[in-house]
Amino acid sequence: MSALTLAAVHTKYSLLETARVPIAVIGSLAFPSLAFCLFVLPQRMVVDNPEFATAAVASMVVFAFMSASLFSIGIDLAEQRAKPWAPYLRTLPGAPSARIAGLMASTLIVAAAAMVPLLVIGALFTAAAPQPADLLAAIGLVIVTAVPSALIGVIIGTTCGPKAAIAVTQVAMFVLAFGGGLFLPPVMFPDWLDVVSKLLPVRQAREIVVGAALGTGAPLWALLGILVWTVVLGVLAVWLYRRDEGRRYR
Fold this sequence. Notes:
Organism: Microbacterium kyungheense
Number of domains: 1
Strand content: under 5%
Number of helices: 12
Number of strands: 0
Transmembrane segments: 21-41, 53-79, 100-129, 135-157, 164-184, 220-241
InterPro entries: ABC_2_transport, Nod_factor_ABC_transporter
Protein name: ABC-2 type transport system permease protein
Oligomer: single chain
Shape: globular
Mean pLDDT: 85
Largest sheet: none
Structural class: mainly alpha
Helix content: over 70%
Keywords: Membrane, Transmembrane, Transmembrane helix
């Protein structure tokens, strides 16, 4: 069985496992829209301006993928490692990258579903009006740029126990969301925070997605940054997964 086929199998069964807990699915679908209603809709100066509203909706879509990646992967993976099924699963043949890819793919699928009600709310209650081509480009790019967040979730789930993973994930989400300019526009940052923010993968993802949604294009520093983060976090995630496998299951 090829690595791609094996990853597809892991994706399928990860989705089935998630579907068996309806409240988890409902929470994943509703959380980004709820955050949008609480943090963005009350800001009339934002929702009544087409450019600001489009940027705000795009930022919250990035938040939807980031939060799903951190919580669904980080906490779920930590819980899976504590269950008896995990040692048996790791005795089966197959590269660890296939298991990681399957878990990431299933999470991104759920996040894509959570994006739909968010876009509907943005269309109905804000002045956001991206061009159809720009909207499609932004949707495609938000999936691609969510990979670093998903890899951070893998790293958390591989290195933390179930209880520790909850705390670490919450801190990571807070730092990445606010530092990445998802709740507060980066134009409102002081200079030092803006410089630090540009080093975060979530800020880079935001700039790419917002640039696509507005049709202005993405800055080069964001494109290069997201590429570097993807490679570095990918290598680190696979190495930590293999190290954990060697320590616990051999």
